[in-house]
Amino acid sequence: MEKPKLSVKEFLAHLRRQTVSEIISDDCLAAFSNVEAQFGNKFSRVSGFEVRLGNPSRYVDYILTAEEKNIPFVDFIWIEIDYEQFAADKKIEPCFFVDVTPKNGDYSEFWDKVLPMFMGEQRARKLRAPLDNLTANLPEGAIIKQIGTMTGRGELNFMCLAVLLSKWEDICPALKKIGWKGDINALWATIESWHENFGVALTFDLSEKGVHDKMGFELFPRWRHPLLVDRFIARLERSGLCLHSKGDALRRWIRILPDVEPFIQTDIHYFKLNYLDGKIIEAKAYIEQTPHLIHHYFSNYYRPLYVEFMLKDEKNTLPIAIALKYIYDCKENNIRRVKFSGDVGNYEHIDRLLNVCKENKIVATVELSKKITREQLKGMIAAGASEFIADIENSALKILQELNFANIQAKFFVDDENFRDLEQITKFASSLGVKELILTGMNPHNIKKSAPSRDALEYIANFISNYEKAPAQMKLSVEPCFSVLKAFMGGENPKKNPNRGINRGCTAGRNHFCITSTGNFSPCKFIPDEKSNSIADYWQKSQTLENFRAYESPCTDCSYKRRCLPCPALKIQICPLASYKSTLY
After folding, report:
1. Does any domain span residue 396?
2. Which of 259, 290, 321 is the last residue of a domain?
3. pLDDT the model gives residue 473
4. pLDDT tens figures, 288-336
5. Per the domain annotation, does 397 fall within a domain?
6. Domain assignment of residue 461, given as a range
7. What pairing do the DSSP bridges indicate for beta strands 408-413 and 387-391?
8. In the predicted model, is pLDDT for residue 71 greater than 60?
9. Structure confidence at residue 578 (pLDDT)
10. Is 400 a domain residue?
């Protein structure tokens, strides 16, 4: 599966919203415009920054990747741009690194095919003998994970290497074997107390004369809980290797709420201690922006994934001026999706709203809860509706199929009386050209007298498991608010249950909220609304949303408790997995 990539322009737009001034000064941030001018439209797997933790200067070197199709064994290249390079108004000359991926551990073939193209024929010939010697003397379990050149700095007589060791205790034996000429005992006395449980990488330069004296140690090479990272930062501060201002900035960096579309999460990739002449001379942090989900330790996104607009209900109709105001507010806040719900067929301005969304590149979903005519649907499609959602019983599904509209989702509300109809409902939805059938239940919408029993959950879980094994065009999914089923499908062991993060249950206030027909704000349309000045104000300052984000499953003595987040708007009822008697409303 192809790994997600974003443009450098997208990463830098995120950085400007989320910059940490103790690390990146205004001048440094402004200088990134030179990076954007030369690399902005390039796509990268990650966006990284080298931070010198003990240096009061507030600048960083920049790291990105570029796809590589010409060098054998290499899929992409790491590009490192020194601050001095992009701060100057001239063409950027970066440094380059590649991951080492020899076939079956055969470094010789890798060096033969990669080195000349990566660093040039002359340098490859000059460094091949010391590299072969180092490769032959690698201790058992050690691997060369990366090589690099500092051509951008004009340093042409050596190469950089990173050697990964399986355990901390291998450091001294490894240094002896690869021919490091420093004082092994003095080094060990200095670094022993920084013991790392998850392996360590040695970084050093290699020239014709062998391994250079300066040695780097990459620590924390995998994600860990923010509190553990805090503890490590505090130790760096106590050791005089990290300024308190930069330590505080790192703590904030790992707690920045992710952007949702495109997804960008902040992380510390690893720390590095540089050693020379009997002491640790500096500490660095390699922080990054990544389009990959690194962890679930956040309660909500920086801005919502979408905003729902309840256009019309039994009592109120959302004024068009208010609806337009908040659609433009969505655009200003980089919210790329909206959902229109309520009696949309009788809302006279629906086509206008859809047109505005289309003009502003906002994906508009229309939820159909009432009867609607063919002409109304044709008008919405022409106006720019991106997708429709309707209950499986809604005749609009058949009309949309006849209109050759492809992006259709259907909902099936499961209870203890109809769960055995799932196979038939799935076939029916597929015959209507439905793109995704969403199973929902145990929420205030169309609430039934009987919640699904444990037997019903078992039946549904088995059906989904078997359905996913066979090739099918239609997707079958479970709505997050049907958390009981999602948690049950993941199993009783919370450490192995994959139902976690924002989508493990109720997503109200976590990835969306609702603008009600009164023009007020609510976590979802089933919750009492309140006034607010703007989308950003409500999302960041609403105490109601804070309550929702802090809400956890009120169940007791249930093995699914950590992976289940039932709807907080439900009144007291019996859960098929456990009983609970606590609701927010």
Report:
1. no
2. 290
3. 84
4. 999 999 999 999 999 999 999 999 999 999 999 999 999 999 999 999 9
5. no
6. 407-503+553-585
7. parallel
8. yes
9. 67
10. no
In eight-state DSSP terms, residue 574 is B
CA distance 229 to 232: 5
Sequence-distant (≥ 6) Cβ neighbours of residue 191 within 8 angstroms = 171, 217, 273, 275, 280
Looking at residue 218, its amino acid is: E
**Could you give the CA distance from residue 521 to residue 329 in angstroms, rounded to a whole number?**
13
Q: What would the DSSP string read from start to end of 217-255?
A: EEE--S---HHHHHHHHHHHHHTTSS-HHHHHHHHHHTT
Same domain, 535 and 579: no
- Mean pLDDT confidence for 402-421: 95
Close Cβ partners of 388 (under 8 Å, ≥ 6 residues apart): 365, 366, 367, 368, 377, 380, 396, 400, 405, 407, 408, 409
pLDDT bin (cut points 50, 70, 90) of residue 1 is: low
List phi, psi (to 5°) of 66. Answer: -140, 140
Q: Where are the alpha helices (DSSP H) in 120-183?
A: 121-136, 171-177
CA 323 centroid distance within chain: 30
Reported as a pLDDT band with limits 50, 70 and 90, residue 570 is confident
Q: What does the alpha-carbon distance between residue 334 and residue 261 come to, in Å, rounded to a whole number? A: 8
> What does the alpha-carbon distance between residue 125 and residue 146 come to, in Å, rounded to a whole number?
19
Q: At what angle do helices 454-469 and 422-431 cross, to 10 degrees?
A: 40
Q: What is the mean pLDDT of residues 415-441?
A: 95
More confident residue, 481 or 266: 266
Same domain, 190 and 334: no
Q: Tell whether 39 and 156 lie within a shared domain.
A: yes
ω before 452 within 30° of 0 (cis)? no
Token pair 């990835």 in the structure block, residue: 511
Give the DSSP per-residue string, 286-346.
EEEEESS------SS-SS-SEEEEEEE-SS-B--HHHHHHHHHHHHHTT--EEEEEESGGG
pLDDT in tens, 11-35: 999 999 998 999 999 999 999 999 9
pTM beyond 0.85: yes
> What letter represents residue 327's amino acid?
I
pLDDT at residue 86 greater than cutoff 90:
yes
